[in-house]
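Notebook p. 47: complex prediction with nicotinamide-adenine-dinucleotide.
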Amino acid sequence: MKVFVTGGIGYIGSHTVVELQQNGFEVVIADNLCNSNIKVLDGIEQITGVRPEFEKIDLADAEKVQDFFSRHRDVVAVIHFAALKAVGESVQKPLEYYKNNLNSLMNVITAMREFGVKNLVFSSSCTVYGQADILPVTEQTPRKQAESPYGNTKAMCEDIMRDVAKVEKEMNLLALRYFNPIGAHPSSCIGELPNGVPNNLIPYLTQTVAGIREQLSVFGDDYNTPDGSAIRDYIDVVDLARAHVVAIRRLLDGKNKANYEYFNIGTGTGLSVLELIHAFERATGEKVNYKIVGRRAGDIEKVWADTTLANRELGWKASVPIEETLANVWKWQKHLMNK
Ligand code: NAD
Ligand code: UFG
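Predicted complex, structure tokens below:
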């Protein structure tokens, strides 16, 4: 069975392609490479022995998407990763973010409807919860107004899926709300490839330990948390990739309880920035050079997932211990430097 993976050359997409192939699915990828490198295909092939089909396509171009679906009539499901994802950049370039992220999703769903492809899994984010009043967040936790255009595209894409599902009864749409994805494939054949100076904690941390950055800034130690630094739910990228495989199976097996569903995908455990740094030091034996600085604008204080629904309904649970995840990202960083 063939799955169409949009944005499959990217960080989470590439790990998901590997898991799909290892679980017997055929994969075709479309990506415009705006935030990824075509060499990732080599990494995927090294792990699985199979080079996935690939087409360079901008999914924001409706005609190209129609043409793609017209030529791939054997696709049974779609996983839609393709999106722009830099929170800060989205504040500077809101139109680019709305155009890219909303049009891509609408083009994909429109073509699915036209060509009779029924099943879609979409990459959403815990950013839709904002700073929740009660933790951990469940799927019933009310969404809050997004802090950034990027976050707003996720909320709007969810709304589009909900509204389409009401009228397109044959379609099965499922959103996964990722918490904080980190890590790399244990083979070190694929991992995160941040462009320029990383915004996210883990790539900044590993680049600091590698000597590429001078010092890691810890944004705030005056939050209302046990050690004062902000808390997140860090989910291993391979665990996250596996969640997509079970989500696709759920749709293909007709096990979904509604034709629009959404699930939290996290570990269920919150870790502070300082706890994460110390876990990295324990896992790798490396020292992290960091300093405490002021809070970063727009950051929330704490969030972690209640994953009961995903555990029960998808039969999925995060399983990679944080030390293993951190050892893998360090191995990946060293691999990048030796290339
Ligand atoms: P990524 O940038 O590594 O991957 C996204 C891929 O989509 C890239 O390869 C990019 O080239 C491609 N792409 C973007 N716009 C495109 C377009 N118009 N046409 C074709 N290809 C296009 O990002 P990622 O971290 O792998 O994220 C994947 C998805 O998960 C995104 O939707 C992102 O918003 C979402 N997400 C990511 C995180 C995170 O922290 N990484 C958290 C929550 C949700
Ligand atoms: N942090 C630092 N120093 C850094 C970078 C980050 O202290 O150099 C802190 C942040 O303040 C935050 C935590 O580390 O408390 C995690 O920050 P990230 O930037 O790694 O991740 P965010 O939680 O801000 O956001 C990420 C993605 C969003 C996504 C969200 C939820 O960037 O796109 O996870 O999935 F929406």
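Notes: The chain is about 40% helix and 15% strand. Residues 129 and 144 are 5 Å apart (CA to CA).
Next step: compare against the earlier run before touching the bench.
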